[in-house]
Amino acid sequence: MESFDEIEKAAKIIAKAKHGVVFTGAGVSAESGIPTFRGNDGLWRRWDPDEVASIYGFRRNPRKFWEFSRELIVKVKAQPNPAHYAIAELEKMGLVKAVITQNIDMLHQRAGSKRVLELHGSMQYVDCLDCGKTYKWEEIEKFLERGEIDKIRCECGSIYLKPRVVFFGEPLPSNVLSEAMEESRKADVFIVVGSSLVVYPAAYLPVIAKEHGAKLIIVNLEPTIKDHIFDVVIRGKAGEIMPEIVKRVKTLI
User: Fold this and answer.
1) Count of C-beta atoms within a 10 Å radius of residue 192
2) pLDDT at residue 39, rounded to an integer
3) In angstroms, rounded to a whole number, what is the distance separating the alpha carbons of residues 146 and 34?
4) What element of type H or E holds 161?
5) What pLDDT score was predicted for residue 1?
6) Is 120 a known active-site residue?
7) Which residues contact 200 (CB under 8 A, 6 or more apart)?
8) What is the DSSP string of 4-45?
9) Please, what sign has the CA dihedral across residues 101, 88, 15, 180?
10) Contacts of 62 (CB under 8 A, 6+ apart)
């Protein structure tokens, strides 16, 4: 684990936060067993993102997307990990006012975070693109668990049932992005956890926070191209480091 000094430095900054904001990426979900997309073992090594994660591919063949989803979501049965719970704890303590996430797995909410801005949407609801009927994820998940992908269709007969996630070729939800940018501007402490900061416009959020005077902390396994703008850089697993930071924060407030 990273040296005690960096964890101590991060804890001192967070303990003084009036408006802390946390920004999370795939690295946090990966520690719950959800596969990442990029990198050597990433899903894009085995799946073509144009086929399974673009709005054009979905329109051509929604079945491909559901086959991909079965591997991504259903097989894993992911649970929140210690990083999710530590972030929720900081919110409970009043130090974090919002969690901005690129993840679609709803694990922050399950860990107890109340204010979660999902930049890429989530799997919670599934909409029919033809008639507009909405289904809860659980209604679709049962077919995936049984491998009955052909039964995923709307009451109206349409096969175009799409979860409220942002596909390639679609814009981020403008209201959520606006809120995330506003939170970044208001932040006096901005904590990045488990993101490589390569996907835009989300990767610009810590820059916005920095420009508005926030102290910046990053907890990530690998270096990022933006490490130089951070006040504290901690290398390691979020599930190990975030609970240590919270433990130290509690002694300071």
Assistant:
1) 28
2) 62
3) 20
4) strand 161-165
5) 47
6) yes
7) none
8) HHHHHHHHHHHHT-SSEEEEE-HHHHHTTTPPPSSSTT-GGG
9) positive
10) 152, 159, 160, 161, 162
The pair of structure tokens assigned to 171 is: 């814009």
Q: How far apart are CA 140 and CA 130, in angstroms?
A: 17
* Distance from C-alpha of 133 to C-alpha of 59, rounded to nearest angstrom: 17
**Residues 33-58, mean pLDDT to the nearest whole number:** 81
Between CA 191 and CA 152 the distance in angstroms is 39
pLDDT, tens only, 229-251: 999 999 999 999 999 999 999 99
pTM of the entire predicted model: 0.90
Residue 215 contacts residue 55 (beta carbons within 8 Å): no
Question: Residues, the chain, total?
Answer: 253
Q: In what order do the strands lie in the sheet with 121-128?
A: 134-136, 121-128, 161-165
State the Cα–Cα distance between residues 82 and 17, nearest whole angstrom: 21
Half-sphere exposure of 28 (CA within 13 A, CB side): 33
- Token pair for 29: 């979900």
H-type helices in the chain, by residue range? 4-15, 26-30, 49-52, 55-60, 62-69, 82-92, 107-111, 137-145, 174-186, 205-211, 238-252
- Give CA angle at 234 (77, 106), nearest 5°: 25
Residue 164 neighbours by CB under 8 Å, 6+ apart: 121, 122, 123, 124, 125, 126, 127
Pairing of strands 96-101, 20-24: parallel
**Could you read off the pLDDT of 60-119 as tens digits, one per residue?**
999 999 988 887 765 557 899 999 999 999 999 999 999 999 998 899 999 999 999 999
Q: Which residue has the higher pLDDT, 84 or 203?
A: 84
Q: Burial-class residue 10 by CB neighbours within 10 Å (0-12, 13-18, 19+).
A: buried
Set 19, 84, 120, 228: catalytic member: 120
